[in-house]
Amino acid sequence: DNVLWGGKVADSQFQNSSTLAIRALNQKLHHDERITLSLVPIADGLTLALKR
Prior knowledge:
Layout: H1 17-31, E1 35-40, E2 46-51
Antiparallel strand pairs: 1-2
């Protein structure tokens, strides 16, 4: 939940701790080959992760 954080994660202008933490989580999930990801771009975003 909140993986898009109102668009702030895509805007490098936002550097507060919450936004940086969400960016780091998104990157970690993106590079984890043990899971398959799906992002639901509704409201603040929702990531679905399925173990392979």
